[in-house]
Design a protein that fits this description.
With 195 residues, the protein is an alpha+beta fold. It folds into 2 domains: 2-40, no CATH class; 52-180, Chemotaxis protein chec, CATH 3.40.1550.20. It contains 6 helices and 12 strands. It has helices at residues 67-77, 96-109, 117-125, 142-146, 168-180, 186-191, and strands spanning 2-8, 13-20, 23-30, 33-35, 52-56, 62-64, 81-86, 91-95, 128-131, 137-139, 153-158, 163-167. The strands form 3 sheets. The chain has a 6-stranded antiparallel beta sheet. The protein has a 4-stranded antiparallel beta sheet with strand order 1-2-3-4, with no helix packed on it. A hairpin with a 4-residue loop joins strand 11 (153-158) and strand 12 (163-167). The longest helix is centred in the middle third of the chain and has 14 residues, at 96-109. The protein is globular. The chain starts with a strand and ends with a helix.
Length: 195
Amino acid sequence: MQAVFFLDSREGFVYYLLKSGAEWVKGVQNGATVTDVADRGEWGPVQRFRSHSEHTLDPKGRLNIPARFRDVLREQYGSEMLMVTHWEKCLRAYPVAEWESLEETLLAQGKNQPDFSRFVRYLIAGLTECALDKQGRILLPPALRSGFGIEKDVVVVGMLQHFEIWDKAAWEEETRHTRETFGDFSAGLSALGIL
């Protein structure tokens, strides 16, 4: 018997395909319950923010979100709202559900980290809710962009559960540096069983 599994972390379900003879049987398992989900339109692999693409901001600071990322927002999260904040070298854009999960982690575990309130203050102070318009764009306010030199040419980089927005020159430098220090990841990749 062959099996293929897809995890939906948003709802805690595991979708699966089982090959029994010549037939593939669709289902979802949540604890001991197995339900056919094909009729509800919930079948399929988990959508993630993957790959990268280059974009140009318009004069008002609007960014066209890649169609594949808009699909993830609609199909995986059921929303077209993003929570955008500044990070170390770029902006991070989170679906609302992922942002709320991050907030819960900060509330539950952040107070155990020494001097963590400075990080939380920085993160929350920069937060902007950005809804996609009819053309699939979000408005990045000047105050959010200015600290990272994001003016015109940007790169949108998928990070699985969120995506990053980089100034193009900063992204090229980050990519160059990562290539040059790629060997530094060997221990971590080996620990994950990837090497």
